[in-house]
Amino acid sequence: MSTALLDAAWKARQNACCEYSGFAVGAAVEASDGRIYSGCNIENASYGLTVCAERVAIWKALSEGVREFRRIAVVTAAESVTPPCGACRQIIWEYCGDIPVTASNATGDRQSWEMHDLLPDAFDCAKLKR
Ligand code: THU
C-alpha cells in the first residue's frame, strides 16, 4: 500500500460533508495506470441520499473513463478502522473486482482485506444468467 493512496484519502476527508453524522470519511482508489481518485462522504438532510466516500471516489474515476483498478483505501478518525459498508462492497466488487481494501485511522491502525473476503458469494453479472 503506497502512502500516496492513504495521503489522498486523508486529504479528501477534509472535505467531508458530514454535518449530520459528524463522521468524516476519506477514500482513494488507484487506477491500473497509477492515477489516484479520491472522495469524501457527502450527506444530505434527506439522510438516505448520503453517499459514502468510497463511492464518491469510484464515481469520479468511472466518470473520467477509468475501468481498471488496483486498490482502494478508506480513512476515518474512528477508534477502530472503518471497513466499507455493504452498499460500497457491492459497488467496489462490481467496478473494481477483487482488489485489496485498506482501512486506516488517525492513530495509525491499519487493516487490509481482499474484496472476496468482504463480499463472499457476491451477486454480480455472472448471477444474472437465466
Ligand atoms: N461512510 C462512508 O463514507 N464510508 C464507509 O465505509 C462507512 C460510512 C459514511 C456514510 C455517512 O456519511 C457516515 O459515514 C456515517 O455512516
Q: Which short descriptors sum up this protein?
A:
130 residues; alpha+beta; Cytidine Deaminase, domain 2; binds tetrahydrodeoxyuridine
Describe the overall structure:
This protein is an alpha+beta fold. The protein has one domain: Cytidine Deaminase, domain 2. Helix content is 28%, strand content 23%. The chain has 4 helices and 5 strands; from the N terminus they run αββαβαββα. A hairpin with a 4-residue loop joins β1 and β2. α2 packs parallel to α3. The chain is globular, with a radius of gyration of 14 Å. Bound molecules: tetrahydrodeoxyuridine (THU). Tetrahydrodeoxyuridine binds next to α2.
Uncertain stretches of 5 or more adjacent residues = none
Strand % is 15-25%
Q: How many domains make up the 3D coordinates?
A: 1
Count of DSSP H/I helices? 4
CATH class: Alpha Beta
For the sheet with most strands, the description reads:
5 strands, mixed
What is the ordering of alpha helices and beta strands?
Answer: HEEHEHEEH
Oligomeric state as shown: single chain
What is the tally of beta strands? 5
Helix content: 25-40%
**Which outline best applies?**
globular
What's the end-to-end separation, in Å? 39 Å
Q: Strand order within the widest sheet?
A: 2-1-3-4-5
Bound heterogens, unique: tetrahydrodeoxyuridine
Rounded mean pLDDT is 97
CATH superfamily assignment?
Cytidine Deaminase, domain 2
Tell me the CATH architecture. 3-Layer(aba) Sandwich
